[in-house]
Structure formats: structure tokens, C-alpha cells
Design brief:
The chain is mainly alpha-helical and 158 residues long. Helices cover 73% and strands 0% of the residues.
Length: 158
Amino acid sequence: MVQDDFSGIKDMIKDVHESVRFINQNEARLNSFFDIIQQLQLPDKKLILDCKTCWNLTVEMLSTVIKSKKVFSRFRDREPHYESCPKVEDWGKVEKVCEILEVFNSITKIISRSDYLTTNLLLNEVYCMKMLLDEKMNDENEFIQAMVVKMKSKFDKY
């Protein structure tokens, strides 16, 4: 269900993935990136590289990068070989998608960490998912509405 969310932002995910990989490849680039973070007085966050088969790592990568989105455009100005900087208009989509996926990620963690999954725990988390999807069905952003319709149809099957 979550993998469907990525279809609308796969180019953005690719840009972020390539950006994180490019920055982490070289210590000088990493230092330059963190210099910009300090100049902007943002909290230091390690750049997490996702794994294409683990959607939760992709969510964590995007969530971390969103907090540093101002840094990437400044890094592009400093680094002439940096070509995969995410576009300004894409950040809004990613923030909206992450808003939804972070809830799914936290629910997944709760369920998977439970040694004894009880009905009341499971039903509570499923109910939270349903409420989130119902709420986002009325989102003003058409991109989010379309994404949630796909997710909700799969959710309703189960």
C-alpha cells in the first residue's frame, strides 16, 4: 500500500537518493554540506541513504532531508558537479507524502515491536490509519487526494 505512494514522487526520491549518495561519497562534500547547516543554524542530522526494498528507510531518508531542504540549493551553488538537486516545487509534495507515511511508519513500528500483538493494539492502529486516510481524502491538494484514493482502496480490501 505504501509503495504506491512513491509512484507519484519517484523522480523526487531518485533526486534525493542521488543527492545523499553524492554528498556522503566524499568527506569534503559532507563537510561543505554540514558547514551550510551550521551557517543556517539548523540541527545537525546525519543523511540517511534509503534502501529501495524498505519503504520505511525511504520515509526516514525523506523526513531527514526535508528538515535540511534549504541546504541543498546552497550546496548546489558551491558544488559544480552536483546535478541531482531536488526541485523547489517537489519539496511540497514530499512534505505532504511524508506527513502521511510517517504515521504509517510509526504504526508499523508499534505493531512490529510488539511481542504479543493483541486485538486492541492492532485495532487501535488500524483505526488510526483509517482516520488518517479519511481525513486526507478531503485534502485540498489533488496529488494527495489521488494518492490517498489508491491507498484507501487497498486498505478497504483488507
